[in-house]
Amino acid sequence: MAYLIDASEGFRCTGGFASMEEALKRIAGDMPDVALVDIGLPGMSGIEGIRILKERHPELLTIVLTIYDDAAKIFEAMCAGACGYLLKKTPPARLVECLREAMEGGSPMTPEVARKVITLFREFRPPERAEYRLTPQETLLLKLLVEGHSYKTAASEMGVSTPTIAFHTRNIYTKLQVHSKSEAVAKALREHIIN
């Protein structure tokens, strides 16, 4: 692998390591732009190593190069921070192309892996709308705020006191993870939270 990389124009192998533990100790000595990481390593797994590398060196691009092609490992590696996933049967010339792709902002994958990633996306589709679990009163208050009501006019409209409106407002902010009326209204409109 080192010979292939060194023999490719524009590339230089900065190091090869037998384990993630060794890589984590020594990689910063001559920091690469891209790291090829196997998954099935002695000691720490490559996936855990990728997670640590991304925490320590966020700019480092990591590409998995492994024999494992099961969906669970692909998913774990991508969640850990890998920008690409290649199988070891990838031809040498294609491997060098993949390094270049990653440097240019791409996410290189072996065709079989790309198919599995697409299947994963189909299976794990996010819900049409986020579920914030607003109570009926909170939903009504948010609707009134979107319509332009002040807290005082919303209290009058709902037949409750302004301290009750303040209580519901705090709950809405917490559930929507916002900090102001304008943020709550914007999020409600953007995510179609109210009908």
What does this entry look like structurally?
With 195 residues, the protein is mainly alpha-helical. The chain has two domains: 2-123, Response regulator (Rossmann fold, 3-Layer(aba) Sandwich); 136-190, Orthogonal Bundle (Arc Repressor Mutant, subunit A), CATH 1.10.10. The protein is built from ten helices and three strands; from the N terminus they run ααβαβαβαααααα. The chain has helices at residues 2-6, 20-26, 46-56, 71-80, 92-103, 111-123, 136-146, 151-158, 162-176, 181-190, and strands at residues 34-37, 61-66, 84-87. Strands 1-2-3 form a three-stranded parallel beta sheet, with helices on both faces. Strand 2 (61-66), helix 4 (71-80) and strand 3 form a beta-alpha-beta unit. Helix 7 (136-146) crosses helix 8 (151-158), helix 7 (136-146) crosses helix 9 and helix 7 (136-146) packs across helix 10 (181-190).
Topology readout:
Blueprint lengths: L1 H5 L13 H7 L7 E4 L8 H11 L4 E6 L4 H10 L3 E4 L4 H12 L7 H13 L12 H11 L4 H8 L3 H15 L4 H10 L5
Parallel strand pairs: 1-2, 2-3
Helix pairs in contact: 3-4, 7-8, 7-9, 7-10, 8-9
What is the CATH first-level class name of the largest domain?
Answer: Alpha Beta
The helix-strand sequence is: HHEHEHEHHHHHH
Approximately what portion of the residues adopt beta-strand conformation? 5-15%
| Overall pLDDT metric | 91
From the alpha-carbon coordinates, what is the Rg to the nearest angstrom?
A: 25 Å
Under the CATH scheme, the architecture of the largest domain is 3-Layer(aba) Sandwich
Q: How many separate structural domains?
A: 2
> What's the end-to-end separation, in Å?
58 Å
The fourth-level CATH homologous superfamily of the largest domain is Response regulator
Main pleated sheet: 3 strands, parallel
Helix amount: 40-55%
What global shape is seen? elongated
Structural class: mainly alpha
**What count of helical segments does DSSP give?**
10
